[in-house]
UniProtKB/TrEMBL annotation:
Amino-acid biosynthesis found in the keyword field: no
Residues covered by the ATP-grasp domain: 119-313
Keywords: ATP-binding, Ligase, Nucleotide-binding
PROSITE patterns hit by this protein: ATP_GRASP
Protein name per the record: ATPase
Organism (species): Runella aurantiaca
GO MF term (any one): metal ion binding
Domain of life: Bacteria
InterPro entries, A to Z: ATP-dep_AA_Ligase, ATP-grasp, ATP_grasp_subdomain_1
Length: 402
């Protein structure tokens, strides 16, 4: 049985998903932003591409998108809609709701896009979250600031990564920043900043159960990288450790509380330095960005993009799905902006290197080893080399650029 999948991503990603979807005998359509035209999409696996001139998540743009899709669907049937990026979760949910296509609807999609909805849902399910407040009501905000201690972070409810986050250190600075948001302030939230180690759990869920997960630790937090011009690094967590077990449990609690039925997911958690407790930060119903999927694959042998596509295909066709054998190696990724247009990575020559980044003004590597200690040793060695010979930094962006 052949079905038609509409893949939505306004950023250049998800090629392996579309290839796997096509290999399963399906028709694959891609809805993407006009600015991605000409990118190296897997054209051999895409039957037709539709472009959005405006990819913003506004009601007026959603109306235009629905009109465009209604025209498309006069002559083409669409069986499933899959959002391959955070920014397209709402688009996919809107299309599903309007055209009554199975899958995650707008209410559940909110838990995976809206950081305020995430925190309320997690808190109500008994999951630890940093103390937070919406920015709707002046009295409630004032009460919140007086009842909690700085520093605080003011962050957009619907941006990915560390984009648009502002850190404030006093009552007056918090209010000054909130007032500076003007009529946009309802699109933000404020929460207590908890210094600690930040982890991510990359997973696959099927039938409401997590069937695969891999926990990793950022050696530099995304906030530090975005706002301090740091070098992005992440390493697999020690298998069967206390932290690994706690992260597995929290990830399962979050996905259950958020009514996740099936998908790839990327969940971020912080282990607070002050009390040693784990706090939920955010989650997303997609594969992690910044080449974390490649890092997970080098550790586990599981290609999250491909297996996610196989899960979607099996469910749509009423077929069974079985996860391939999972390998337990350690891997680590390091990525930095580079001063050189095409940096020469030849000086990085250890045998543990299993992947090299090929992107203008970037240097990046993934290493694989049977021990975490060796991965950490290489991450530190490469960070020193990159700082000395390659590293460049750019101002933090209010919105992600890839």
């Amino acid at each position: 049985m052949s079905l038609t999948f509409l893949c939505i991503t306004c950023y250049f990603k998800g090629g392996d998903f579309m290839r796997a979807c096509k290999e399963a005998g399906n028709t694959v359509y891609l809805l993407t932003a006009k600015r991605t035209e000409g990118k190296a999409w897997p054209y051999e696996s895409i039957d037709e591409i539709f472009y959005l001139e405006d990819d913003s998540n506004t009601l007026s743009n959603f109306e235009n998108m629905i009109k465009g899709m209604a025209y498309v669907m006069r002559t083409r049937k669409i069986d499933r809609v899959v959002a391959l990026d955070d920014f397209d979760v709402e688009k996919a949910a809107t299309i599903r709701e309007h055209f009554r296509i199975p899958g995650m609807g707008q209410t559940t999609a909110r838990y995976f896009r809206d950081k305020l909805a995430m925190r309320v849902q997690a808190r109500d399910a008994g999951i630890k979250v940093p103390v937070f407040s919406a920015l709707f009501n002046d009295v409630e905000i004032t009460d919140y600031l007086r009842a909690s201690t700085p520093p605080w972070v003011i962050k957009p409810r619907a941006e990915a990564s560390a984009a648009g986050i502002k850190k404030v250190y006093s009552f007056d600075e918090a209010w000054q920043t909130i007032h500076g948001l003007g009529e946009e302030r309802h699109l933000f939230l404020i929460e207590q900043f908890k210094p600690g180690a930040v982890y991510h759990v990359d997973a696959l869920t099927l039938g409401g159960k997590v069937i695969f997960h891999r926990s990793s630790e950022y050696l530099n937090t995304p906030f530090e990288v975005a706002h301090g011009g740091g070098i992005f690094r992440s390493v697999t967590v020690e298998f069967n450790s206390k932290d690994a077990k706690a992260l597995k449990k929290m990830n399962e609690q979050v996905l259950k509380a958020f009514n996740m039925n099936y998908s790839a997911s990327h969940t971020e958690v912080i282990k607070c330095h002050e009390d040693g407790e784990f706090y939920f930060l955010e989650t997303a119903s997609r594969v992690g960005g910044a080449h974390l999927a490649e890092m997970v694959e080098m550790s586990s042998g599981i290609n999250l993009w491909k297996e996610w596509a196989k899960v979607e295909n099996a469910l749509a066709k009423g077929e069974s799905y079985s996860l391939p054998d999972v390998r337990d190696d350690y891997s680590g990724i390091i990525i930095s902006l580079a001063r050189q247009q095409w940096p020469d990575s030849a000086p990085f020559n250890d045998p543990e290197i299993v992947w090299r980044m090929n992107e203008e003004y970037h240097v990046g590597l993934i290493v694989q080893s049977t021990t975490r200690a060796r991965v950490l040793e290489l991450m530190e060695k490469y960070a020193q080399m990159i700082r000395h010979d390659y590293h460049a930094s750019a101002p933090a962006q209010d919105k992600p650029t890839h």
